[in-house]
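S1.2 Input.
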Amino acid sequence: MNRLVPLLTLLALAGCKKPEAAAEKPKATALPPVSVETASVTHEKMPRLLTLTGSVIPDRQSEVAANVSGRVTATYVERGMPVKAGQVMAVVDSKAAGYQAAAAIAQSQAAQTQVNLARQECDRADTLFGQGAIPKSEYDRLKTQCTSQLYQANAAQANADLAGKLAGDTIIRAPIDGIVGERYVNVGEYVQPPTRVASVYSVNPARISISVPEPAVGRIQVGQSLDIEVSSWPDRTFPATVRFVSPALRTQTRDLIVEAVAKNDDLALKPGMFATVKLVVGEEELPTVPLDAIKTDGTVRRLFVAQGSNVVELVVKTGLTKDGRIAVIEPLAADAKVVVRPPPGLSDGSAIVAAK
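S1.3 Output.
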């Protein structure tokens, strides 16, 4: 019992100690305001756009067929290779075609000999019939034989010409200027007349097949200018001109197909690309901002609007440009302020201060 008293006294003293003050957490340091330049939003009459969709197609396309039977002995083109009309693309073994041509020529020559002989017989028949030496029935038989021999000679000559053409077709040539899309045959393969050898695309100029909905058909006409955009080149616009207009709408989709032609010297437009087509069809009043106020990240366009001492970041759709300003397809107040040339690091909610 005497030993427990000092122990209880120590515990009581420990319980009476004041707890140490908890360490204060450091306060977050606020970022200093960003110095920015601002400009006012103004409402102006800007070109009104009609946005359509389409596909890039080649100006001309050819699936080159063999047009002859035989074994391929050589190929001279690869995918992506430019070719000129008449350039040799592949060669088929010409021996069999050569033999056939030689045989056809020989048959044609033999038929021509028979024609010459028949003509002599016909001349003799004319003389004999005129002298009354042969009856009319014999005369008619000889004249018919002469005419038949002439027809046979013409047929033999046609066969010889065809055989000669087939012998020439063993050299397969490009039908148009363009670029090889695909080569379908290799050396050693046996081809027949319908066998595909290669595909050739002419892509300069490029065509754009455009689908126009029925309500907008009245705004399209031949010679109209429009702009083409493709996702592969987000910072480029390709000018084009409407060249061909279908005379009728498609009954199932109620749309009109038109084709525009765009210059394509650098071959940036490739067949199969999805195209966004923008056509100016008038003017409308829209909010506009300086071109420098738009920040572009790929296909996304951003705008920073000043609200008091902070900025609000907006992802916006933009229209056409005019006199250094760009239309914004968003409901922006006329007295709103936007940041011009947004500095690096500026983001939604950043504190700002007007540059002096």
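S1.4 Remarks. Helices lie at 4-15, 95-131, 136-168.
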